[in-house]
Design brief:
mainly alpha, two-stranded antiparallel ribbon
Length: 513
């Protein structure tokens, strides 16, 4: 890894993070708003009430704006796997590419096809046919998320593959193991339900603004009723999927879990931090307290991770230096095995190239014996396995704290709407408005937790990020980083302006009923 320019790794990381963070502004809203629109249109078809058609078409218009711009950022992100991460694509492309190909051929095709019918076919197809197209768009967008998150889940917990030393590639051996990877499904359910929460906040925030302005009252109240009901259900479901995700992280990514909780020293009956301020001067080997201040729940982390109050949760120290009492192998031991695997792989290829079959067989056997920790062979020091603790900790707790607030908000707004008291509580309407940007913050914090928390790995325990980059100049990546930053910021500003214009205009009366 000495020949790799560190600035190339940093700029490649930064560019992909920039693209993903911008892309994730648009995707969750699409995932949730498609279902809210489908629910509203179902009410219209069932009741025949033109107010519901008017309501559906308004939210569908905002959905169309978000969908178009989200599509642009998503395409750029997929191209970056070939431009900036060609080594990654070469090594794991056979596995990672399969779900992405299925997503493009099946889910995205269905979503795009029926989107045209949904948006332009109001007076061209029957009510039921149009309703079907709306539901198929919702299902298609979520199927797209499923296949993408299967690919991402495999990166977090690689299964169903074998490394071929002849080609230096990971090759798929069990497609269904990849598809039914439990990590992928916990991630999928948690991700889409968080998208549903954001969409509910989106509808509530805009509708609350209408009520504060005392305009489009009937439209706003009906929209809030649907969004608050939907939001409360999915936010509670999001809570349960978060619990499952925590168990997956504890089992397959214990270092990420330790960083999420700022847990430096492992313990049985580990507490969970409800709120805390990390000590910025804390290092791995000093005796300083990791926290300047914290409020914690005794035994909560053990319960969350293993459903056992007394379960042992390893800390960062144990995962770096090992813990024989709990059968935890140190990072240095894994690095030693990894370096043996790297050397054996190189010797095997040389022996095979020279026609020395006997030596090739010996080296291949040595490689297979140590290949489990191949990725560790490319690390420089054992502390490289520790992700940025402060970023991971604060991102995780921001996500959890805001998620808790959203449950409370949905419950209060739903109750006040059902009792016809919502318009009397302006503070609650303002809470609905300001919770919309909080929803976006929670989304980005969740993404940061998942991706920053697994550093330094592109593929968990198998491929460090530094070995996944393309052999290009850091200057070219730096240039495209700023180019994309300007482009994405411009797209975001354009979306916000277009949406604000539509919101200020409000729902239009429909003359074609």
């Amino acid at each position: 890894m000495e020949h790799i320019d560190p600035s190339l790794i940093d700029w490649s990381r930064a560019q992909f993070a920039l693209t993903a963070l911008y892309h994730w502004i648009f995707v969750p809203l699409t995932l949730g708003l498609t279902f809210i629109v489908a629910i509203m249109e179902s009410i219209y078809v069932k009741t025949g009430n033109t107010w519901w058609k008017k309501t559906t078409k308004f939210w569908m218009g905002l959905l169309a704006i978000n969908f178009a711009i989200g599509l642009a950022t998503g395409i750029i992100m997929e191209f970056e796997f070939g431009t900036n991460w060609s080594n990654y694509s070469w090594i794991v492309g056979d596995i990672f590419g399969a779900p992405l190909a299925i997503e493009g051929l099946m889910a995205f095709f269905m979503e795009s096809t029926f989107f045209a019918v949904m948006f332009f076919g109001w007076e061209k197809v029957s009510k039921k046919a149009h309703l079907l197209s709306t539901w198929l768009v919702a299902i298609g967008s979520n199927l797209s998320a499923l296949w993408i998150l299967i690919a991402n889940g495999w990166m977090q917990h690689p299964v169903g593959m074998h490394f071929n030393p002849d080609t230096a590639r990971n090759e798929m051996t069990d497609f269904w193991a990849v598809v039914f990877n439990p990590n992928a499904y916990s991630k999928f359910l948690h991700t889409i339900s968080s998208g549903y929460v954001l969409a509910s906040l989106f509808v509530i925030g805009i509708s609350s603004w209408y009520l504060l302005k005392k305009r489009d009252i009937q439209f706003a109240k009906r929209s809030i009723m649907v969004a608050a009901s939907f939001g409360l259900i999915v936010s509670l479901f999001n809570l349960t999927t978060g619990d499952d995700s925590a168990q997956q992280v504890a089992e397959h990514q214990p270092m990420k879990l330790a960083a999420m909780e700022g847990l430096y020293s492992g313990k049985s009956g580990a507490e969970i931090v409800a709120f805390g301020i990390l000590n910025p001067s804390k290092t791995l080997n000093d005796k300083k307290d990791p926290f300047l201040f914290k409020l914690s729940i005794p035994e909560g982390l053990s319960l969350l991770s293993y459903h056992d109050f007394d379960a042992y949760v390893p800390g960062i120290k144990q995962l770096v230096y090992g813990d024989k009492a709990h059968n935890i192998i140190s990072a240095s031991e894994k690095m030693e095995q990894g370096k043996k695997a790297v050397m054996a792989l190189k010797a095997y290829k040389e022996a095979k190239h020279s026609g020395n079959t006997k030596k090739a067989d010996i080296e291949r056997s040595l490689f297979e014996a140590n290949s489990k920790y191949l990725g560790y062979g490319y690390l420089h020091k054992q502390t490289d396995v520790v992700p940025p603790v402060q970023i991971t900790f604060y991102a995780f707790h921001t996500m959890v704290g805001l998620g808790t607030w959203f449950i409370i908000l949905f419950a209060m707004i739903l109750y006040m709407t059902m009792t016809n008291e919502l318009h009397r509580h302006r503070w609650l309407l303002w809470a609905g408005v300001w919770s919309l940007p909080m929803g976006y913050i929670a989304q980005e914090a969740g993404w940061i937790t998942a991706e920053v928390g697994r550093q330094p790995w592109a593929i968990q325990d198998m491929l460090p990020v530094g070995m996944a980059t393309s052999n290009i100049s850091s200057g070219s990546v730096m240039f495209t980083f700023w180019m994309f930053a300007i482009l994405f910021t411009g797209l975001l500003i354009a979306e916000v302006k277009i949406m604000m214009t539509q919101i200020k205009m409000g729902p239009k009366e429909d003359t074609n009923v």
